[in-house]
């Protein structure tokens, strides 16, 4: 670009508005080490590299949506690995279950952000100076520029033109009988701010999240839990998390209200509302509060979310003598929208043999044509518990951790349900049945709901929010503010006007016309040539494929 | 009227809209065919390239866009498009009334409202520029997509699940469809740009030059990109409210990010020597293809928290 000046933004060498690189002399360049480093750095900070890295980033993000990720779908990970045992090595070699923390994905974005820093810093320094530089000299012939026209007036009108241009947001400078004006510095400011904010985003998210934690706890109505490490079912924390930073509070789930649709025939049983009524105890002070989906509760810097819910039937077991050996609420996991729920109970001691129970809970049991039970409605209209019973070795002593939601029946004998020859044990609340084999009795005492509460502390939230706002606003400035030059020149007893776009500027010609009108003189014929503004100013540097 | 009646009335309007879109498509197509057969209009598309003129090029003036406005066929096409659009918007509004909430909370409704917004962007762009030469593209798109939506995605209206009961549903999803509308318009222009670069006969002669098409595509695309950026941020804020984290690489989040990055690549490409022109046009098209993929395939077949297809 022949006309680039010190007030133009500094661009990477292959930017469309950057000066055309000087043609290389015939023989290959003789580069020393420094020369090579400079060459590599220039490559890394070129526009081309930024595009390629951006596209790599986009492509690299895709596998994470195809393969389950540890961070977002741990159960999916387990499933996939169980289904494809021969591919597990590949998943691991390529970190396919941790794409966004994988070496190759990190490499892409680290390169991208190195490129960004390398690109932004020189521009920042340059822009700092450019903001103070005066607009460049008025070209000798305005008639070749966009929107060229003349209006009546002479050199005595230049002061007025100067004031007018300033009022329109131009920076102006007088060169003899002409005014050179430039505006739109904010475009580059916005662009730089935008890229810096991207960098800030990465840093804040990367570092800040190291201090937070995320714990999950299932609580049955009427029960409470304290915010301590040991009371969480699952707990994830950043690498700099300190256990002492857990705020000392406790939460009791008083009641979980669930409202289901009852009228719309297309949606009978669809959930309409989940509300957890809780009592929070902070520093010895209790208060009542509620948690809803989309409405987390803030307790002492931690956010509490209601993530799911279900039924916890209370089952008691008595031995042959009638002594209570087991009496607990067991959370059952919902298997479908109608809350058919699956649960497991293990009694390693108390009875003559170890006892395992596995079965379904139907909040509203209905018989299918096949005779099997199913839940017909998610609320408690006709609760029924159907249990299979197993005796033998529960496998709890082997020292292998066992999921509380799974029953290993390999070493056990089924004594009720399935192929055991005995019907599954069917219970409504309050009912008691005999355990086959005279082991004792089982009673379905009652059923409560449980809620799963996520406790989340993330110190980056506020910063991330403001950075995101900066990104949005600077992007608006950078994409929508036109950057342009404008000249008013007294010549031949008239005022000549013309403009020059610096970057995308579809409204340049209108702006020149508008200035002409404001200057108020009677407008002369426009120069004969059609001079519609190009959206960009780069025609010479365009490389047609 | 009961909700069910409102919904069947809504469907009736949607079917009528489809019929009228089809008629509009035919009118536009006839117009294109007619102009392909007609004597070429001598288009004054000369560019002063490399003349040493500083930073400017003479372009055909606005009159070049005029023949693109087309003849009677295009005028009929546009009128029919507006009529179809009115029916379509009516259908979406009735659907919302029937469900008692905004009509965008399952696949059918996303599609119904989304296509209305896309066509709306096209219809309203008329206030800015005559882009009637995109009529075939938009009416074709609307007919096919509405067909897919009513046949494959339709579900009777159901109340909002608790996860969607948030004003963010109104903002986030609507801005996303708005972004899609603008990016769709930009993509239409980019496609024409590529075609026009390859050949320039018949109907294509009456179109603006590839450079003009590219500039228009970019200006529309930039608006779409701004809306998409907003969508991404609003989505993160909502995720923070609903799920306790602003970003978790859920499948839908991944794809929103991928689309955003592709468009950032497009904007860079527009500003890069050797990439401006057809290469950057391809990026715009790829970005839009990713949007459609995100809406159809990802919504329906990828596991994730955003399980709101209603199917
Ligand atoms: C994290 C990666 C990046 C993203 C998401 C990104 C995004 C964007 C976006 C959206 C724009 C258009 C809006 C604006 O002008 O501010 C832009 C412009 C620009 N970016 Fe980046 N960018 C990235 C990295 C880079 C890098 C590494 C460079 C250095 C080569 C760079 C150089 C530029 C330049 C020079 C412009 C102005 C383009 C113009 O003149 O229109 N960007 N970037």
UniProtKB/TrEMBL annotation, chain A:
Q: What domain of life? A: Bacteria
- Major localization listed first in the record, in broad terms: membrane
Topology within the bilayer: Multi-pass membrane protein
Q: Tell me the GO BP annotations in alphabetical order.
A: cytochrome complex assembly
Compartment annotation: Membrane
Record region (Disordered): 1-28, 519-545
Pfam families documented for this protein: ResB
Residues passing through the membrane, by range: 47-66, 104-125, 192-213, 463-481
Q: Which UniProt keywords apply?
A: Cytochrome c-type biogenesis, Membrane, Transmembrane, Transmembrane helix
Keyword Transmembrane helix present in the record's keywords: the answer is yes
Annotated ResB-like domain residues:
47-512
Q: GO CC: one term?
A: membrane
Q: Does the keyword Transmembrane helix apply?
A: yes
Could you tell me where the Basic and acidic residues compositional bias lies?
Answer: 519-528, 536-545
UniProt-listed InterPro entries? Cyt_c_bgen_Ccs1/CcsB/ResB, ResB-like_domain
Report the protein name in the record: Cytochrome c biogenesis protein ResB
Q: Which organism is it from?
A: Agrococcus baldri
From TrEMBL, chain B:
Q: Indicate how the chain sits in the lipid bilayer.
A: Multi-pass membrane protein
Q: Indicate yes or no for the key word Transmembrane.
A: yes
Please give the InterPro entries that the UniProt record associates with this protein.
Cyt_c_assembly, Cyt_c_biogenesis_CcsA, Cyt_c_biogenesis_CcsA/CcmC
One Pfam family per UniProt: Cytochrom_C_asm
Coiled coil (residue ranges): none
Indicate whether Transmembrane helix appears among the record's keywords: yes
Q: Where does it live in the cell?
A: Membrane
Q: Which domain of life is it from?
A: Bacteria
The record's GO molecular-function terms, alphabetically, read:
heme binding
Transmembrane parts of this sequence: 12-30, 76-94, 106-124, 131-155, 167-195, 216-239, 254-269, 281-302
> Could you tell me the keywords of this UniProt record?
Cytochrome c-type biogenesis, Membrane, Transmembrane, Transmembrane helix
GO CC terms of this entry: plasma membrane
- GO BP term, pick one: cytochrome complex assembly
Q: Where is the Cytochrome c assembly protein domain?
A: 104-306
Q: What is this protein called?
A: C-type cytochrome biogenesis protein CcsB
Organism placement in taxonomy? Bacteria, Bacillati, Actinomycetota, Actinomycetes, Micrococcales
